[in-house]
Amino acid sequence: MEIQRKVAFVSGGGSGIGRATVLALVEHGARVVIADVDENGGQQTGQLAAEKGGIAAFCKCDVTRTDDLDSAFDWTLEQFGRLDIAFNNAGISGEDLFADEPGRWARIIDIDLTAVIDATRLAVRKMKQAGNPGTIVNTASLIGLWPMPSAPVYAAAKAGVVNFSRSLAYLAEESGIRVNAVCPEIVDTPMARALGEEQLQQMRVTGQILRPEDIADGVVELIEDESRRGAIMQITVAGGREYVT
After folding, report:
1. For residues 94 and 108, is the Cβ–Cβ distance under 8 A?
2. Catalytic residue among 80, 87, 105, 154
3. How many domains is the chain built from?
């Protein structure tokens, strides 16, 4: 898909991977809706997009609330008249040992998996209603492909995103809507701050951590490459962008 003149919806666009992807999309000529619970972050992303000469409008949205998501997609159609691209990127991490009380880890499932499923479902519906084929990219994680004993619930949520996205390959034939996913290694975003600033700085100096822009480039590739349907792209420091079979 050619990105120029298309309309994109990016959840978690107020910082990190989401912000980098918003900026990449406006640089490619898209108009973008920035959906986030963080109003300040979302507005800042919009300002950065404007400084690049792009059009990006903020819409406050809690992805765990179906009504919020539905309204945000409707607002996108009202503002721009179409929906071509959805990047379901909002996510959290954290300690999530399954032996703890459910309240401590259930939110990870709610945001990292359930909200991705819900947003994909709604995006497909809105794209069909608008009568235009579209493309959806979901954010998973390298941990969705490998075990992570220190965060089993996070690993389970991201593995769910991987196989959910794979399982929707049929939509390309049915309705022209392509669904794919990115699986990044650790990225230098606010979520990575749990490692501590000293370790983060060391990883930056030694090139052992990805930049948000690295993931945005992968998302752009998945949007543009119309042969990709149900594709899983892993992005690592050592290997760059590779597709997982």
Report:
1. yes
2. 154
3. 1
Pair of tokens at residue 72: 């945000």
Q: Tell me the C-alpha distance between 216 and 159, whole Å.
A: 20
- Angstrom CA distances, 103 to 30, 205, 237, stand at 39, 37, 34
Active site residue 154: yes
At 148, phi and psi to the nearest 5? -140, 90
The answer to whether residue 219 sits within a structural domain is yes
Cα–Cα distance, 166 to 119 (Å, whole number): 16
| Full-model pTM | 0.94
Domain carrying residue 61: 7-235
For the CA atoms of 29, 116, 141, 200, what is the dihedral angle to 10 degrees? 70
Q: Quick check: is 241 in a domain? A: no
Report the C-alpha gap between 59 and 178 in whole angstroms.
24
User: What b/e sequence results for 176-215 when a residue is b if at least 16 CB atoms lie within 10 Å of its CB, and e otherwise?
Assistant: ebbbbbbbbbbbbbebbeeeeeeebeebeeeeebbbbbbb
55-70 per-position pLDDT tens digit: 999 999 999 999 999 9
In a domain, 50, yes or no: yes
Whether residue 220 is contained in a domain is answered as yes
pLDDT band with cut points at 50, 70 and 90 for residue 75 = very high
Given a cut of 70, is residue 167 above it in pLDDT?
yes
CATH at 215: 3.40.50.720
